[in-house]
Design goal:
Layout lengths: L1 E5 L4 H12 L3 E6 L19 E4 L5 H9 L3 E4 L6 H6 L1 H21 L4 E6 L27 H21 L3 E6 L2 E2 L10 H10 L4 E4 L5 E3 L1 E2 H12 L8 E4 L4 E3 H12 L5 E4 L1 H5 L8 E2 L4 H7 L7 H5 L1
Parallel strand pairs: 1-2, 1-4, 2-3, 4-5, 5-6, 6-11, 7-10, 8-13, 9-14
Antiparallel strand pairs: 9-12
Helix pairs in contact: 1-7, 2-4, 4-5, 6-8
Bound molecules: nicotinamide-adenine-dinucleotide.
Nicotinamide-adenine-dinucleotide (NAD) binds next to helix 1, strand 2, helix 4 and strand 5.
């Protein structure tokens, strides 16, 4: 099988490529290398049929040419990270909206099964005790500063869903919740690699806000096999499915844990959101996934806890 992976030079995409190659598939990556890096793919350079195409998902002809030769397409390319989104809301909206449109239209035109990466951010500012796919408060109130990302991803889901249901081409939509693992960088606001880098360098570990906000981090080593199983499961087609971890922690608790596990003597300092991200930034107080749908569909059981993820 030949797979196209957009955003395959990025964090999750490169792990997905590792799995696909290990399963014997030929992989073609389409990535503009804006946040991804060829270094994430060096281990695959000699794999049969492996190719990295440096290009933009906004390039419709290029996307169609690559998808035309594929048996399956995984769409992970997106403008991601809080800094990227808050600093360039229009750019992130364009890439995330029209890039997805290009990929999905190409997949449907060539009748190639496709997966579209969505996000827990589509749940907006929703502190529910386990966010569920059938939550009717979905898209309720994304905070202003993150609106372009959440809104574009929400529309991506709709584009994927409508095309999938009208064409009958298999379509999987995954809502990732704070996925973490090797190759993720802290450059764009991702908290775990940022804390680890700071702790290892003996620098202050900088918690934004009060640190009482809670998150549940998922390991890329759980999430990627989960999404691959969803692609093989017709009952998972044309619906959004949460994928994430199971251990909830406050950001202050995360900072403590990182300092402890790295044996660092870094101090933990608190920085106002305004100072970190600019005026008016708001964060969700809590984001915790209910992964029972994925469990029911493909037996998804995240096996890694927070200590595994940090170390
Ligand atoms: P990442 O930045 O490592 O990966 C995104 C990749 O897309 C990068 O390699 C980047 O260079 C590429 N890209 C960006 N714009 C592009 C364009 N116009 N054309 C071609 N390539 C482009 O981020 P990630 O964490 O691996 O995210 C992968 C996907 O998962 C994204 O769609 C993201 O929205 C989604 N997601 C991730 C998380 C998470 O916790 N990491 C959570 C929710 C959703």
């Amino acid at each position: 099988m030949k797979a196209v992976v957009t955003g395959g030079a990025g964090f999750i995409g490169s792990h997905l490529c590792d799995h696909l190659v290990a399963q014997g598939h030929e992989v073609v990556v389409l990535d503009d290398l804006s946040t991804g890096s060829p270094e994430n793919l060096v281990q695959l350079e000699s794999a049969p049929g492996f190719r990295l195409v440096q290009g933009d998902v906004l390039d419709r002809d290029l996307v169609h040419d690559l998808v035309a030769e594929a048996d399956t397409v995984f769409h992970l390319a997106a403008a991601v990270g809080v800094y990227n989104i808050v600093d360039n809301p229009l750019r992130s909206l364009r890439i995330n909206l029209h890039g997805t449109e290009n990929v999905v239209e190409a997949a449907v035109a060539h009748r190639v099964p496709y997966m579209v990466a969505s996000t827990s951010e589509v749940y907006g500012k929703n502190d529910a005790d386990g966010l569920r796919e059938d939550d009717d408060r979905i898209y309720g109130s994304p905070t202003k500063s993150r609106w372009s990302y959440a809104a574009a991803k929400g529309l991506d889901e709709l584009v994927a869903y409508v095309h999938g249901s009208e064409s009958g081409v298999p379509c999987v939509i995954t809502r990732f919740f704070n996925v973490v693992g090797p190759r993720q960088t802290g450059r764009y606001g991702m908290v775990v690699p940022r804390f680890v880098d700071q702790a290892l360098a003996g620098l202050p570990v900088t918690v934004y806000g009060t640190g009482t906000q809670r998150r549940c981090f998922g390991s890329v080593y759980d999430v990627v096999p989960g999404l691959l199983r969803l692609m093989d499961t017709p009952a998972a087609y044309n619906r959004a499915v949460n994928l994430g971890g199971h251990e909830e922690v406050s950001i202050k608790g995360l900072a403590d844990r990182v300092v402890e596990l790295t044996g660092s003597d870094s101090e933990i300092v608190y920085i106002d959101y305004d100072q970190a991200y600019g005026e008016g930034y708001e964060d969700m107080q809590r984001r915790y996934p209910d992964t029972s749908l994925a469990r029911g569909l493909v037996g998804y059981e995240p096996a890694r806890d927070l200590n595994d993820i940090i170390t």
